[in-house]
Amino acid sequence: MSETFDGDWLALREPFDAAARNPALAARFIAALPERPVIMDLGCGTGSLLRWLAPRIAGDQAWLLVDADAGLLARGLAETADWAEAQGFDVSVRGGLTVTTPHGVWRIATRVADLADLEGLDIGDADAVVCSALLDLVSRRWLEALAAAVRGPMLACLNVDGHDRMMPSHAGDIAVTTGFRRDQARDKGFGPSVGRHAEAAFRAAFSARGFAVSAAESHWRIAPGAAHMLSALVHGHADAAAHWMPAARGTIRAARAARLRQIAAGRLAMRVGHRDLLALPNGGY
Ligand SMILES: C[S@@+](CC[C@H](N)C(=O)[O-])C[C@H]1O[C@@H](n2cnc3c(N)ncnc32)[C@H](O)[C@@H]1O
């Protein structure tokens, strides 16, 4: 059973994701692509990664957007069509999307699939594989199966690394963080989740298959004015922590209330630690 995500949450986080992804690592991924690459985006949601990465890849490209949630895929095609038109690109909707830009044609198709079962996805047929905000949900064993299936370069953006920081700090932070980390490690349909250990698990799995793995920082930096995003994170972390730490519910409730007051007063800022990961086959090009 796959974990479900709200399209409005993905829309809320998209500008923070776009600001956080590491352009230098993405440039190395792009340099390793063949002409007219076929790129598979695993757990694509509404296509936020495509809207960030496709314009950076000059030239023709084909995308296969894969997700378990048909509703997110449909919303993603509609959002991408609107976004592409707003950029001044020509868009044709037939089956998937064809976007004609001054620098090349993008063919975008979707596929509903449960990624827990990698067999049958034909990952090896793609020239390259990408994902964003996915790997903390998966297990070590799943990463090993993925590394065995991938043939070309892989770019995995926005993997949580646990280096979160709330400014100012609060006495309840330890309870909230402890409970939230337990939630990050639960099984989300792939076996026990690697959570904030995604980088180490990815490095181990892809290095064992001969890939050269690199990583770079991609933290969310959320300023006090971003009240909607900050509130979503405070509620999400507190809800998860309260579930796993029932004995600390009083502390967690007090921390949540204090954080919401700080947000209303424009006095809370937050960093959510992420790493972008790149695997290049044959030890790198
Ligand atoms: C945190 S969201 C990230 C979405 C998108 N990549 C982005 O950066 O906005 C995780 C995505 O993984 C998808 N997902 C989770 N488990 C899945 C599974 N077992 N099979 C396919 N997709 C899955 C969810 O539907 C969701 O779209």
Q: Could you characterize what this model shows?
A:
By secondary structure, the protein is an alpha/beta fold. It has a domain at 7-161 and 193-220 and 274-283: Vaccinia Virus protein VP39 (Rossmann fold, 3-Layer(aba) Sandwich), CATH 3.40.50. The chain has 9 helices and 12 strands. It has a 9-stranded mixed β-sheet, with helices on both faces. Helix 6 (173-184) packs across helix 8 (227-244). The longest helix is centred in the C-terminal third of the chain and has 18 residues, at 227-244. The radius of gyration is 19 Å and the shape is globular. It starts with 6 loop residues before the first helix and ends in a 5-residue tail after the last strand. The structure holds S-adenosylmethionine. Residues 2-3, 5, 10, 17, 43-45, 48-49, 67-69, 72, 114-116, 132-134, 137, 189 line the site of S-adenosylmethionine.
Summarize the SSE layout with pairings.
Layout: H1 7-20, H2 23-31, E1 38-42, H3 48-53, E2 61-67, H4 70-86, E3 90-94, E4 96-101, E5 104-112, E6 128-132, H5 140-149, E7 154-160, E8 165-167, H6 173-184, H7 198-207, E9 212-217, E10 220-222, H8 227-244, H9 249-264, E11 269-272, E12 274-280
Parallel strand pairs: 1-2, 1-6, 2-5, 6-7
Antiparallel strand pairs: 3-4, 4-5, 7-12, 8-11, 9-12, 10-11
Bound molecules: S-adenosylmethionine (SAM).
S-adenosylmethionine binds at residues 2-3, 5, 10, 17, 43-45, 48-49, 67-69, 72, 114-116, 132-134, 137, 189.
Highlighted features:
nine-stranded mixed β-sheet, three-stranded antiparallel β-sheet, binds S-adenosylmethionine, 12 strands, alpha/beta, 285 residues
